[in-house]
Design brief:
The complex is a heterodimer of chains A (231) and B (364). By secondary structure, chain A is an alpha/beta fold. Chain A contains seven helices and ten strands. Chain A has helices spanning 49-56, 79-89, 105-117, 122-134, 150-162, 180-197, 208-212, and strands at 8-17, 23-33, 38-42, 64-69, 72-73, 90-93, 168-172, 200-204, 216-221, 224-230. A six-stranded mixed beta sheet of chain A has the order 6-7-8-3-9-10, with helices on both faces. A four-stranded antiparallel beta sheet of chain A has the order 2-1-4-5, covered by helices on one side. In chain A, β9 (216-221) and β10 form a beta hairpin. The radius of gyration of chain A is 17 Å and the shape is globular. With 364 residues, chain B is of the alpha+beta class. The longest helix of chain B is centred in the middle third of the chain and has 39 residues, at 222-260. Classes of the chains: A alpha/beta (231), B alpha+beta (364). The A-B interface holds A 50, 54, 57, 59-60, 79-80, 83-84, 86-88, 92, 94, 96-102, 111-112, 114-116, 118, 160 and B 263-264, 266-275, 277, 357-358, 361-362, 364. Bound molecules: adenosine-5'-diphosphate (ADP) and magnesium ion. Magnesium ion is lined by residues 49-50 of chain A.
């Protein structure tokens, strides 16, 4: 690890919803994530985990506070610049609804570069094929994603989140479905890419076995960081 | 439709008809040409009168701006008799070469030829039917001036105008001059103009310079014109609402599609697709809908229009509603529909491009 500069710095992030009856989903969160860290974000339902992840992922803006990604302060960026950062710096794995059902596995993996540049290039295609090999879907690349199992679909989602080698991968309960075998598989893959490529990962989870497998566990309660332990 | 109706109307009549003015009692002192008035006062009102120095009138008319042809003729009333059938007719004595430049009767022949040698006539198909004559048959013509003659039918036409097809009998100018006792005379001069809608203005000019009475097709057909303009304005209104309905249809299809695809749009936005690209996708979809819809619609429309044209015919077999379909019409329709599709897509496309990705993914 040559570069030890933090991938993510958030300072005093507050998020309020509603104009009249205001609810505070986040109540002043500070967090620094270093490169190569595999961090679990845990906490009871409604504690603000998804809200925090959306703000870090530049899908939502904090009411106050700063988000610095890869050394770049995102506070004053406009919608276009945020979109470009999402395409280049971040990778997303959502709980559900990750893929476009009308397309093949390969096309779904090519989406970030496609959306960013408008037309697929040969390099984009080669990178997408490589990462699909790495997640074990070499023989399923040209299947429409609706013809894949739930576990295979989540692997396509992981491949899409990693294909452009983002500085930070954000995963919101990626193993949240009740199928434990495939949930172990998904986590094993994230762990593998974290070790082999040094990918920085922030994963929201309910599953204590997954949290136990991470380098660090941050616990959120009522919109605040209650505890922060390295393992 | 308007243009076709006018074409059809003008197919059987000249744009402008020149005649000797109607006789009106006039104080002799007010007139510059005392002799002409004195001459006319002596004639009976029914009596056909020749246009004074008509070759010079024709030469003058042909020199006028916008006039493309002039044809001298004798037009008079009479009867056609065959065995025990007798029909009232309108006799047209004319010079074939000049007349053809006003009304191309050859295009409307349904039997025989347009030949007007001595003793030859060409008649309307309805008249031929009423008299029971065909090409080569003989009939007797009686003029309102007492002249009569035996003639041979050489051709039968259908101009698509019931009155014309039931009464017209075309013969040579020389023959008509003999029938109406007007040697060397001409009762009407018929004109054709380049711009049919300028006919009324040109008619007034001609009347002013020649002192003749000049009737344009526009005054003769004032009722038709009023009807046509009412028809075309109601047609415009209908077209407007068809376009509005199509635009609303495309817009609502796209709104539904935006709602159905909001999850997909959210995913695309989340992984870095710029909102302008989402906007473009839906605009293109609107344009493609308009393009495809109008291509299919034009095809079906053409089939039905031709079907209708072939089904609704005059007794003579001529289509009553001739339909003209050209590439420019299709091109215009497709371009208009594609434009309407694009415009209709603006609101749905903006909605799609402004969709909040976080909400779309959360609510799926
Ligand atoms: N879009 C929203 N509008 C209003 N309130 C919201 C919205 N999103 C989340 N909240 C509220 O913020 C709090 C935190 O929600 P969330 O971040 O989804 O929690 P978690 O992911 O930890 O279950 C909850 O009380 C939730 O009701
Ligand atoms: Mg959540």
């Amino acid at each position: 690890m040559v570069d030890r500069a933090p991938v993510l710095v958030i300072e005093g992030v507050v998020k309020e919803y509603g104009d009249v009856a205001r609810t505070r989903a986040l109540n002043g969160v500070d967090l620094v994530v270093g490169p190569g860290e595999l961090t679990a974000l845990i906490g009871p339902s409604g504690s603000g985990k998804s809200t925090l992840l959306n703000i870090i992922g530049l899908l939502d803006r904090p009411t106050s506070g700063r988000v610095v990604l890869g050394g770049k302060d995102t506070t004053d960026l406009d919608e276009r610049e945020l979109t470009t950062m999402r395409a280049h710096v971040l990778g997303f794995i959502f709980q559900f609804h990750n893929l476009l059902s009308a397309f093949t596995a390969l096309e779904n993996v090519m989406l970030p570069a496609w959306g960013d540049r408008g037309a697929p290039t040969r390099e984009m295609r080669a990178a997408a094929e490589d990462i699909l090999h790495a997640v074990g879907l070499a023989d399923r690349m040209h299947y429409r994603v609706t013809n894949l199992s739930g576990g295979q679909q989540q692997r396509v989602a992981i491949a899409r989140a990693l294909v452009h080698r983002p500085a930070l991968v954000l995963a919101d309960e990626p193993t949240g479905n009740p199928d434990t075998a495939s949930s172990d598989e998904v986590f094993a893959l994230m762990r593998k890419f974290n070790r082999e490529l040094g990918t920085t990962v922030l994963v929201v989870t309910h599953d204590s076995r997954i949290a136990d497998g991470c380098d660090r566990v941050v616990e959120l309660v009522d919109g605040r960081v209650r505890s922060d332990h390295a393992r | 439709m308007l243009a076709q109706q006018i074409d059809k109307t003008l197919g059987s009549q000249p744009h402008i008809t020149l005649r000797v003015p109607r006789e009106e009692p006039r104080p002799l002192v007010a007139s510059a040409s005392t002799t002409a008035i004195a001459h006319s006062m002596q004639e009976s009102p029914q009596r056909l009168r020749s246009i004074d120095q008509w070759p010079r009138v024709i030469a003058a008319a042909e020199r006028m701006e916008g006039v493309t042809a002039a044809s001298p003729s004798i037009t008079g009333a009479g009867f056609a008799v065959r065995a025990d059938a007798k029909s009232p007719i309108v006799v047209h004595g004319l010079e074939p070469e000049r007349f053809l430049r006003i009304i191309d009767i050859r295009r409307h022949l349904i039997a025989g030829h347009f030949e007007l040698e001595a003793g030859d006539v060409v008649i309307g198909f309805k008249l031929a039917k009423d008299l029971g004559v065909g090409v080569g048959d003989k009939l007797r013509v009686e003029s309102s001036e007492g002249g009569d003659d035996l003639v041979t039918v050489r051709g039968i036409f259908s101009l698509g105008n019931e009155g014309v097809d039931a009464t017209w009998l075309l013969t040579s100018l020389r023959h008509a001059q003999a029938l109406y006792a007007l040697p060397g005379g001409v009762t009407t001069i018929e004109l054709k103009v380049a711009d049919v809608f300028a006919a009324e203005r040109i008619a007034r000019d001609v009347a002013g310079t020649t002192g003749l009475r000049a009737d344009s097709w526009m005054t003769v057909n004032a009722d038709l014109l009023a009807g046509l303009s009412a028809q075309s304005s109601s047609k415009g209104l209908i077209q407007f609402f068809v376009v509005v309905a199509a635009a609303l249809g495309i817009a609502s299809v796209l709104i539904v599609s935006v709602v159905q695809k909001s999850r997909e749009i959210g995913i695309l936005r989340a992984v870095g697709t710029p909102s302008r690209r989402i906007l473009l996708v839906f605009l293109i979809q609107g344009g493609v809908l308009g393009l495809a819809g109008s291509a299919v619609g034009s095809g079906l429309g053409a089939v039905f229009a031709k079907l209708f044209e072939n089904l609704v015919r005059d007794p003579s077999g001529v289509p009553r509603f001739p339909v003209q379909l050209g590439l420019p019409l299709f091109g215009f329709s497709v371009a208009l529909a594609t434009g309407v599709g694009l415009v209709s897509a603006v609101i749905p496309a903006r909605r799609a491009s402004r969709l909040d990705p976080a909400t779309a993914i959360r609510n799926g």
